[in-house]
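User: My instructor asked us to take a sequence, write out its structure as tokens, and then describe one feature of it. I'm not sure where to start. Here is the sequence I was given:
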Amino acid sequence: MGIYSIILVGVAVIYISVALFFYFFQELLLFRPTELADDYKFNFDFPFEERNFEMKDGAVINAIFIPAENERGVLLYFHGNTGSLERWGPIAKYFTQFGYSILIPDYRGYGKSTGVRSMQSFFNDALFLYQDLQKTYEENQIVIYGRSIGTGTASWLASQTKSKALILETPYFSVADITSIRLLFLPTSRILRFPFPSHRYLKSVETPIHIIHGTKDAVVSYSSGMKLYESIPNKTNVHFTTIQGGKHGDLATFEEFHSTIASILDDSKN
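Assistant: Let's start with the prediction itself. The structure tokens for your sequence are:
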């Protein structure tokens, strides 16, 4: 075997090894959960109720419900890929000022939630929670909110329901689209187990869609959010808000973010 053949074999072995590593350990790259003990007590400085939902496969989804004064509806919030409800509860609390109570779950493996993660489990759990809310609220009182990794689940859920609105903060065209840019040498679209093709889901969403993205986002690029927007065939009820200079986790520091949320949720301004 010549030197060039040896080099080619070596390169092939390295390539396959990297691809296999990505396939089996991709969850470590996509999800960064903080686990909490079963007896952990949340210590928020606002009223809340802890809820546990048992799924058909035996998994338990831990969530908190934050009631709003003068309630006009409820917002189902799917958070980002880092932390747990201990971090995300206070962030979601913001939306109660508009008269919307909040139900925010931790994904499987996050906080106190249990069970094996898969893309389908994200969807099954989301639909279960939505249907549970329907026991109390009409669909035109339910707003679906997704942030970062949560925008994929939120987009899918909106395609299966008739909620009042869908709000996507820093969304992606698809997770496969993001990873393919960062890992150009890997066939990520084929080996990714969590592709979350949001662009496919939004094509069948009938509810108003609101996308909010910052131009300086280094985690989910602004171009990916714009690509998602441009993929929606009927833009009659689709709105894209650009936050100039906004990064991935600081949009709430911009006044335009607050005015956009108010225009969506504050009925007195609609």
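For the description part of your assignment, you could build on this observation: The chain has one domain: 31-269. Try explaining in your own words what that tells you about the chain.
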